[in-house]
Amino acid sequence: MRRTEVKERLRQLIERRLPGEVLPSERALSTEIGVSRPTLRAAIDELERDGLVVREHGRGTFTAPRKISQDLVPATGGEQYAPPAEGHWTSRVIDFATTPAGARLGKRLEVSPGHQLVAVTRVRVVEEAPMAIERILVPRDLVPDITAAGFESGSFYELLRTRYEVVPATAVQVIEPTVTGTDESGLLGVPLHSPALLFERTTRDAEGRVIEYTRSIYRGDRYRITSHLKFDHTSG
């Protein structure tokens, strides 16, 4: 039996199991499928690279945990908005400081280099597992008395609206694939150079002021984005 056939048989086996469920041992699988253990192991290697299984030393091979889905839904005017992602999300601040913007960030947030920014790094957790690392920058004068706790409890955007009367109106977000570095891997609990998604978002209020710039690293094995598309009659 060829490795591609073995891989397909294993896929079918995985689909019949729940996320995080242990698979039979290599010995049992090789007997069940009727294939040599080296061929079976090579197929499992490919499934692990595809993110369908997770190996834990001394414990066995498991189906991958379910992915947390974030919808992007078309709104009026053709824009996309993002409803809350699945699951119960919490945040843990690991760094909180006030710092001058400097030339590069000043340009990005459209403030002077000496303008004070609140710089926050937090880990986003869902279903008791770290999902993302967010680096948030906000002009200090918009949130003069904010503390680290403001980035840990509830929605940060809701806090901006209700406490500081700063209303997010529009945002430009860029997403691209990347891999985790040493620090990111440690915080997210994944191997070095694991697949990840890099998000960069610039948010403005109704007057066009930049009120936030965020750079985030999301786990590629646990997070996915779903876009809802609508085509007109002239679409190719």
TrEMBL record:
This is GntR family transcriptional regulator. PROSITE patterns: HTH_GNTR (PS50949). Gene3D superfamilies: Chorismate lyase-like, Winged helix-like DNA-binding domain superfamily/Winged helix DNA-binding domain. Keywords: DNA-binding, Transcription, Transcription regulation. SUPFAM superfamilies: Chorismate lyase-like, Winged helix' DNA-binding domain. Pfam families: GntR (PF00392), UTRA (PF07702). InterPro entries: Bact_HTH_transcr_reg, Chorismate_lyase_/UTRA_dom_sf, Tscrpt_reg_HTH_GntR, UTRA, WH-like_DNA-bd_sf, WH_DNA-bd_sf. Residues 1-66 form the HTH gntR-type domain. GO terms for molecular function: DNA binding; DNA-binding transcription factor activity. GO terms for biological process: negative regulation of DNA-templated transcription. CDD domains: WHTH_GntR. Signal peptide: none annotated.
